[in-house]
Amino acid sequence: MSDPLSRGEFFQVTAAAGVAGATVPGGTVVAAAGGGAPLTIRWYGGGVYELATPDDKTIVLVDAWIWNNTGFKAFGIDKPAELSSAAAYAAHIKGRAPDTVIVALTHDHGDHIGDYFELLPALVATGLDVKTVGQSDLMRVGLLPKFKAAGLDNTQIVLNNGAGINMGGVATHNGVRFQLVPAVHSCASGYPAAGFIIDVGGARIYASGDTDCYGDMAFVGNRYHPDLAVVCAGNGAFTMGPDDAAYAAKLLGVVAAIPVHYAHNPLVLGTQAGDLFRAAIARVAPQIAVTTLHPGERTTLHIARNPGRA
Questions:
Q1: How distant, in Å, are the alpha carbons of 23, 56, 151, 207, 276 from that of 121?
Q2: What backbone phi and psi angles, to 5 degrees, belong to 82?
Q3: Is 265 among the domain residues?
Q4: Residue 186 confidence (pLDDT) above 90
């Protein structure tokens, strides 16, 4: 949750924000003059979150570990009822009446894929337009037996007629565009772990998945010019920590950033990781607006457009 600001502080930081915008109460990023794309984000804990247009017509889930997610406990927050089971979650999504629900899978570690094959059939059963996307060999080879076991036809539910996307590839559906970018990480089945560039509702998001910081993030930034980076920051045994995540955001050249993938298991940093990321951004890239979240809260961002984006 964003740090509270007085009314005077609000106007001071908004005026000083320039192109990047500023973090204000309620986790809202105020865009620079000329406006910004509105986007809602809800963190489910760990590295899992939801992106949606404010009218809920388009919902994108980045990874699928929801009712088994352990990311609430460290914050002392009770998991909301709608996140407690596949049936409850599917009913919750159905009740929001989206035109499209797309699940973007970064890789097959349990804290990312853990509820995936229970989630997809539950969502499909609601009658909603449900799709998924991920690295092509993972989608059409590695996970094929699991799609079949779940009663799902991967050629129908996986974008690009079951092919998914590979690095540099593109998938589009109902106005949402996905491109796959490298992640320096591993995948249990041996296929490449990945991140995404996601265009939804006029905003462009870099979704890191699990990764270390690497030099070609600057190339990713120069190639795609994302507005917002949602970056893993938990450190420990698995991914980059707050300092490197802040440096990654700098390399990417984003306007705004959100840290995730912390406080969900004993081998990663706890709830302090969000504040550590904010402090690191202030040191290395103070022009980037930071929003930190609590699991379960839904936050609306008005993200200034990256000036490098056409």
A1: 38, 21, 7, 24, 38
A2: -70, -10
A3: yes
A4: no
